[in-house]
């Protein structure tokens, strides 16, 4: 009799460790660049314009021996009924046999894999002596980004938190942030320009549709991990920054159509040829990341389904090893 | 805390009743023809040519208030390892909230919904006074087809079973068929031509790649439900039958690309304009089915993902009502 794992959000919180997720996502980028990781065509359906939609992202990680999909639904009216607007579910299959491995709640896992992506951008592209991180956006994703960055950048001394809507959100975020690390100061900030001027690593995770960070404020050697833009029309940083920066993406076609690089290309500030390469190409040594301490680097992370497949697979492997989660006859 | 249902193959065997599945699949065809049922683009990936592949079929049934997907994997080397070559899993979501409803083993359910489809073809297109059914193919699917036909065609007196590979398979099938009905004779047959000449309803469910049934053998008023062709190149009946028959499909574009009608169109025996309509159009009264007792009718059923969504949804609703299956925190 066949069995599958069913992992709840609570299970994923217990099973997933940030350093391990970062390692898994690095492998995803490597597989994508070497060709063993393949992204299948996206399925998207809008039930009601700007109110309810769903998408199915799927793909295979042939080295990891797993394939699968994530279905994410967004129902904008849900919060008024006391339900979450966003929900997601991952399904995984054994690449050796095609048999189902399990079903995983995608909510916490998506936060983890997105945090990992931002940190991988910083790990491979930021200056080695980076000390100050600026988190732009104090929402749900900020916590994952900070956890991940302090996992990979050991020299971090200060984390500045800025909220584009109101200062109180940044204050409250810092108060409640559960993963404070010894030797790091966490500081809510009111003035974005001053914060940008003093930062080595800037992570943006907002739903912004117009640039918040101006080129004049950015010091030499700054690294940006731009996490917020995942839909056409979104933009977080001044396209003049893109003009002078070394540009990297998780998936070039997706960055051009929905990522941070989209508006820069549409407005003519940059062209597709200005994108150095995908981050996976840096990881496998096919392309250079940062080449000097003076350069500004930008990693445009739009998110790919393979990240969910890898994170979910790790959760199932750990559940099996530690006898956690629920295994159900199928 | 959110919960989802997980229904195993065993659960679906206990939960699904053929008459109810038939009703659900009729509603699928109605929704498809009225426009409230929508099929999303197919995702297909071949891991290794002719050895291993997977597809994701998805869609929404807006009237039924459910959407979802079925992922089916085919790993041809599995039987040599003692594993099933084909495996599938269905995931369903509440159309009102986007929240996941459950995960269902698709194996038995696919048999049921395919049986239901063949029977709906007969119910709406065969002569009302049909008495003899011929089942061509004595494989896994034959049992579901016969169960479904005897559910909807009350006048059936004889079921002939023919296996294109060997007679013994037909004999063994009849011996082991678990759903024998009082007043019906079940007869394995050796000679296909004689069987065709005496049959009112012919259901084909084989992997054939060349026509098995010739036009000269077919008597006036015969109905065909062609279930076997679901891949380019497959063909079960002589294309000269298509020339003189009233033709119906579950999904016209799919029939033309992979169904029984494909080869007839490719060989020039018929054109796309010869297809009367989709079966759903008959069910909603938009188009006439059979118009006289002399006509030959053909229903080309290629299978659509919406059938799995409807059958799975019924299984979950019944599990909830009867307190069956497993409900898991998610």
TrEMBL record, chains A, B:
Its EC number is 1.4.1.1, 4.3.1.12. This is Ornithine cyclodeaminase/alanine dehydrogenase. Keywords: Lyase, Oxidoreductase. The keyword Lyase applies. One of its GO terms (biological process) is carboxylic acid metabolic process. GO terms for cellular component: cytoplasm. Pfam families: OCD_Mu_crystall. It comes from Anaerosolibacter carboniphilus. It comes from the Bacteria. GO terms for molecular function: alanine dehydrogenase activity; ornithine cyclodeaminase activity. Belongs to the ornithine cyclodeaminase/mu-crystallin family. The lineage of its organism: Bacteria, Bacillati, Bacillota, Clostridia, Peptostreptococcales. InterPro entries: NAD(P)-bd_dom_sf (IPR036291), ODC_Mu_crystall (IPR003462), ODC_N (IPR023401).
């Amino acid at each position: 009799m066949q069995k599958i794992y069913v992992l709840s959000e609570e299970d994923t919180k217990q099973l997933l460790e940030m350093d391990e997720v970062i390692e898994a996502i690095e492998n995803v980028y490597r597989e994508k660049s070497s060709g063993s990781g393949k992204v299948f065509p996206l399925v998207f359906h809008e039930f009601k314009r700007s109110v309810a939609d769903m998408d199915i992202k799927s793909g295979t990680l042939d080295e990891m021996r797993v394939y699968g999909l994530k279905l994410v639904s967004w129902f904008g009216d849900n919060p008024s009924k006391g339900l979450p607007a966003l929900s997601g579910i991952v399904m995984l299959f054994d690449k050796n046999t095609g048999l189902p491995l399990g079903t995983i709640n995608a909510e916490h896992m998506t936060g983890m894999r997105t945090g990992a992506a931002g940190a991988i951008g910083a790990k491979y592209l930021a200056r080695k002596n980076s000390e100050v991180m600026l988190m732009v956006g104090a929402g749900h994703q900020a916590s994952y980004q900070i956890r991940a960055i302090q996992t990979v950048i050991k020299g971090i001394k200060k984390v500045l938190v800025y909220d584009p809507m109101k200062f109180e959100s940044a204050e409250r975020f810092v108060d409640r942030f559960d993963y404070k690390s010894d030797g790091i100061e966490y500081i809510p900030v009111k003035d974005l320009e001053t914060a940008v001027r003093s930062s080595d690593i800037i992570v943006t995770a907002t739903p912004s549709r117009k640039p918040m960070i101006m080129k004049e404020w950015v010091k030499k050697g700054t690294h940006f991990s731009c996490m917020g833009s995942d839909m056409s029309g979104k933009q977080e940083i001044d396209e003049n920054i893109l003009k002078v920066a070394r540009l990297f993406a998780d998936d070039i076609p997706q960055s051009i159509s929905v990522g941070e690089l989209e508006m820069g290309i549409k407005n003519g500030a940059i062209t597709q040829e200005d994108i150095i390469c995908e981050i996976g190409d840096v990881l496998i040594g096919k392309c250079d990341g940062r080449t000097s301490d003076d350069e500004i680097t930008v990693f445009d992370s739009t998110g790919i389904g393979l990240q969910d497949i890898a994170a979910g697979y790790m959760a199932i492997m750990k559940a099996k090893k530690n006898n956690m989660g629920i295994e159900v006859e199928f």
